[in-house]
Amino acid sequence: MLDKKNNHLKIALLGNPNSGKSSLFNSLTGLKQKTGNYAGVTVDRLEGETTFFINNESHPIKVIDLPGAYSLFPKSSDEEIACKTLLDKKEEIDVVVIVLDATSLKRNLLLATQIIDLKIKTVLVLNMIDEANSQGIIIDILGLQNTLGIDVVCLNSRKQEGFDNLKKAILNARISSSVFYNISTFNTEFISYKEFISSHIYSKKTESDIENSDKLYRFNIINYLIAKFVKTPAQLSLKAITSKIDAVTTHRVYGYLILIFILFLVFQFIFFISETPMNWIESVFLGLGDIISTQLPKGALNDLVVHGIIAGISGVVMFVPQIAFLFLFIGLLEDTGYMARASFIMDRVMRPFGLNGKSVIPLISGTACAVPSIMATRSISNIKERLITIFILPLISCSARLPVYTLLIAVMYPKSTFLGFFNSQGLVLLFLYLLGFVATLLTAFVLKRIVKTSESSFFIMELPVYRWPQGKNIGILVYSKVIIFIKEAGKIILAISIILWFLSSHGINKEYQELEIKQQKLSSSYPTLAIKKEIKQIETQKLEQSFIGHLGHFIEPVIRPLGFDWKIGISLITSFAAREVFVGTMATIYQSEDSEKSEGIKQKLLNEKDETGKPKYNSAVCWSLLLFYAFAMQCMSTMAVVKRETKSWKWVFAQLLFMSVLAYVSAFGAYQILS
Amino acid sequence: MKTLSLAKLKKGQKAVIKSFTNKTLSSKLIEMGCLPGETFVITKIAPLGSPIAIFIAGYELSLRKDEADSVLIELIL
Question: Domain end: A231, A259, A290, which one?
């Protein structure tokens, strides 16, 4: 008989970090999960669906994966959200599934006894039971179950064992009649533990003495439970294999060499290997654009679809290879347990800058692209360290700056002069990269003192034992990150790119309309060399007469002190989409024959003269532009992803303002000194 | 027996937790299983001297040196 009711049973998974809770969530829901938002915080909300088939009956289940927590007295924003969600009546959680790591039962039982005292229907899962058994830890399940007053299920979520028992237990979950910590005997203010915890979470007035007496009282009972129901070998010690691997990974020499090697691999994949699939994506969308432009009648709609929408979507999808590769690495490093070691050996290095040991990976991948790197900061659990990492990431010289740097350096030093072994072009490039890093660290250093959060920076965390990575966990991580990016950051990127496309390809004045008519006439005639050249000229004139062309003129007074004219102004606006667009726009403006290669545009810039007949792109203008591009935001995708990761526009605009001021002041200084 | 701070220990040394000197840190440490009376071993000290790692209550815990400084312990010989 099938259950016809559309009444979902809602279950919440709760447990210590590293208890295998996420593995269980992935096993239960597979790809039927989505990432949402908790109101007002940066923590992601993970929800999914599944159906239990028990005795020929199907039971639709909603699963919410709460952030990891050690106790109901929150010490981090993750823990706070876990507790608040659990207590929120509107959530209508029917059953709480507490996931425990059976190898360190004592610490895990603290949260379990607190949940039991909340008087919610509860099931207790002993995860990684086989690992515990192999260490000689034998647990009397029935004894534990009777004392706790709820079902206790053994599970090996990595090997998919115990799931049927878990499903039955969830459907038959009950409220325990056991009480561990009777709050009314300690504090007459409260009649229930739920009320006590709510008041603690929402008013935050509980003193650590009261909090500690709760925990110590519970641990007394837990010690008794363990003595009674758990057989533990006399000499417990760290797993030999973990100990052996750690001797290398946390070694003062090999540890750093391994980390450098891993960072190098990440860099290789994001910087070079991603390029191939990115080229595929580009050609697929170009091909698609060609097909559609011939299928649709010529006109405004055709232009909008091909150059606005398809080009915009292509710009979004272009990031997928980098995001996928980066999260493949992060998934592997997290799932094996290595990430905690990287954090362990880097903490002392990163801490003076207010950064976390885990900031290293985003910072290195940031030299390729800030977009996936900002998404990767999610593994930094401390909110302040995470915000600082996000804030400074776009200052690192990313690969999109490279075409801009290359062009301008080539204009400054057309013939590479050698000073001994060094070539001046290379030295300038190196200087710009170092400048990016120095600015990044200095900003972090300053932010550490400015940013205030209620959360204190602990490094009190578990070093999980090494485990084999699970393909399913990593696959789901990569998939969900790609989906999040496309859905949430993608729509902002698409919107801005359509606006930029519209502004650069439309104009309202008479000149623009005349150029349009002239261009249409020319493109229908036989494309001789002369006509091709004329079409190019018209394109340039159109850009000058477009909305963006006018905007370029409009901002000229503001950028004149930096040595920029309205032509550069136009390029600054178009390259707000992405820095490398600067080169293409300059090529259009200066009618370079070969817009793909920077060689043609380089010659044009070299030949350009100012009003007095001197070269216009002298070292003052070039340095000013270089510094401007080193520091200015000039990347809508970064802004979109910062919005998505911080869940607020506040950080986006703070970052935009800071980087704009820094860019303007540096460019101003460089131009005024050098000219 | 003399009590000293956890931060003073060397790798491989075994000790018992006695008390804490910082209330905020103590409530975090207690929920991580660092209870007065609990025995532990120093398993690692990071190359730059901080953080350190201890094996306690069946798992490995890492903490910074200044955090470890707030834990008073008694050496087991």
Answer: A231
Alpha carbon dihedral A580, A583, A584, A587, in 10-degree steps, equals: 180
pTM of structure:
0.90
Q: Same structural domain for residues A370 and A486?
A: yes
The CB density around residue A446, as the number of other CB atoms within 10 Å, is: 14
pLDDT at A419: 58
Assess if residue A608 is contained within a domain.
no
Residue A535 lies in a domain: no
**Domain total in chain A:** 2
**DSSP structure class, residue A71:** S
Query: Quick check: B67 and A219 CB within 8 A?
Result: no
Region of A354 on the Ramachandran plot (φ > 0 left; ψ -120 to 50 alpha; else beta): left
Concatenating the DSSP letter of every residue in A527-565 gives --HHHHHHHHHHHHHHHHHSHHHHHHHHHHHHHGGGT--
Q: Residue A487's closest CA among A297, A626, A301, A313?
A: A313
Using CA coordinates, name the residue in chain B closest to A357. Answer: B51
Q: What is the 3-state secondary structure (H, E, C) of A586-635?
A: HHHHCCCCCCCCHHHHHHHHHHCECCCCCECCCHHHHHHHHHHHHHCCCC
Touching check for A181 and chain B: CB below 8 Å? no
The residue whose two tokens read 């001046």 is A424
Task: Give me the pLDDT at residue A652, please.
Answer: 96
Separation between Cα atoms, residue A385 and residue A471, nearest integer Å? 29
Q: Tell me whether strands A57-65 and A9-15 are parallel, antiparallel or unpaired.
A: parallel
Q: Is A589 within the bounds of a domain?
A: no
Map out the domains of chain B with their CATH numbers.
3-76 (2.30.30.90)
Confidence grade of residue A322 (pLDDT, cut at 50, 70, 90): very high
Q: At what angle do helices A490-505 and A636-646 cross, to 10 degrees?
A: 150
Averaged over A334-350, what is the pLDDT?
93
A127: contact with B, CB 8 A cutoff:
no
Determine, for residues B47 and A250 on separate chains, whether the beta-carbon distance falls below 8 Å: yes
Which residue's structure tokens are 């299920």? A153
**Which is it for the CA torsion A639, A640, A642, A643, positive or negative?**
positive
A455 at B interface, C-beta within 8 A: no
Q: Is it the case that residue A96 has pLDDT exceeding 90?
A: yes
pLDDT score recorded for residue A3: 44
| Minimal Cβ distance to B63: which of A70, A212, A460 | A460
Burial label, A352 (beta-carbon count in 10 A; 0-12, 13-18, 19+): exposed
pLDDT in tens, A262-319: 999 999 998 899 999 999 999 999 999 999 989 888 888 888 998 889 989 999 999 9
Q: Is A33 on the interface with B (CB under 8 A)?
A: no
pLDDT tens column, A562-599: 999 999 999 999 999 999 999 988 888 887 655 455 56
CB of A211 within 8 Å of a chain B CB? The answer is yes
pLDDT of res. A511: 82
The pLDDT, as a whole number, for residue A2 is 42
Nearest CA to A539 among A314, A315, A310, A307?
A: A307
The angle subtended at Cα A589 by Cα A660 and Cα A306, nearest 5°, is 85
Residue whose entry in the numeric block shows the structure tokens 């650069």: A504
Put simply, the answer to whether A70 touches B32 (Cβ < 8 Å) is: yes
**Rounded Cα–Cα distance for residues A497 and A302 (Å):** 16
Shared domain for A214 and A342, answered yes or no, is no
Domain housing A258? 238-396+469-493
Band of pLDDT at residue A184, cut at 50, 70 and 90: confident
Contact check, Cβ <8 Å, B62/A104:
no
- Let me know whether A131 and A251 are in one domain: no
A427 within domain boundaries: no
Joined tokens for residue A134: 């192999």
